[in-house]
Amino acid sequence: DTEVTQTPKHLVMGMTNKKSLKCEQHMGHRAMYWYKQKAKKPPELMFVYSYEKLSINESVPSRFSPECPNSSLLNLHLHALQPEDSALYLCASSQAPQREGRETQYFGPGTRLLVL
Amino acid sequence: AQTVTQSQPEMSVQEAETVTLSCTYDTSESNYYLFWYKQPPSRQMILVIRQEAYKQQNATENRFSVNFQKAAKSFSLKISDSQLGDTAMYFCAFTYNDMRFGAGTRLTVKP
């Protein structure tokens, strides 16, 4: 089973709202990722968690706050977003972090976010 | 820094025919991994095929195969017997420390 689930599927929020995106995997993977994808563009890496610790933050604005409560869950907390943050947010997981030979990433279906 | 280039923004193919999508990359590393992902309009990124750089044998998965030329830093995807369900955006990806994607090729399979 290579399933990564994400909730919600769609989210509309105002610029003053606080919301959270959730990602879950039960494959025993120890690395989890958040990506942002704009229309007709490739995914852009935002954050990487390795063994539940934040290992990569690709200079993402502080209005995005990741959290990894345990090895199966990954959250992305959103606060004071801008309209240009509207995008598809993808979560992925891999058996291990990069450079350990188990890098294949499995993606969730994404959350389509619209910021008004 | 590693870069991935897909030079074909859009391609089309008739159902049942064969199509090849191109990908080149740039790296100074010797051990890395290459992937092709497919993203249909439903938007989920689906792994199509994976290639380890230290393996000379080209990976195959049913109708999908790659032509991996390490010296040329080329990693093309061949889809045989194209089906309507193959219509999607295809991303080539390189991973060493983290995953980098090409810009994508939008493939349309015509009936």
Q: What's the SSE blueprint?
A:
The complex is a heterodimer of chains A (116) and B (111).
Chain A: E1 4-7, E2 10-13, E3 18-25, E4 31-37, E5 44-50, E6 53-57, E7 64-70, E8 73-79, E9 87-94, E10 106-107, E11 111-115
Parallel strand pairs in A: 2-11
Antiparallel strand pairs in A: 1-3, 3-8, 4-5, 4-9, 5-6, 7-8, 9-10, 9-11
Chain B: E1 3-5, E2 10-14, E3 19-21, E4 24-26, E5 33-39, E6 46-52, E7 60-61, E8 64-69, E9 74-79, E10 88-95, E11 99-101, E12 105-110
Parallel strand pairs in B: 2-12
Antiparallel strand pairs in B: 1-4, 3-9, 5-6, 5-10, 7-8, 8-9, 10-11, 10-12
Short description:
The complex is a heterodimer of chains A (116) and B (111). Chain A contains no helices and 11 strands. Chain A has strands at residues 4-7, 10-13, 18-25, 31-37, 44-50, 53-57, 64-70, 73-79, 87-94, 106-107, 111-115.
Largest sheet features of chain B: 6 strands, mixed
What fraction, in percent, of the residue positions of chain B are helical?
under 10%
**Which pair of chains has the greatest number of interface residues, and how are they split between the two chains?**
A-B, 23 and 21 residues
Number of strands of chain A: 11
Unreliable stretches of chain A (pLDDT < 50, length at least 5) are none
Q: So how many helices of chain B?
A: 0
Q: Which band does the percent of strand residues of chain A land in?
A: over 45%
Helix and strand content put the structural class of chain A at mainly beta
The unreliable regions of chain B are: none
Q: Outline the biggest β-sheet of chain A.
A: 7 strands, mixed
Rg calc of chain A: 13 Å
Strand content of chain B: over 45%
Oligomer: heterodimer
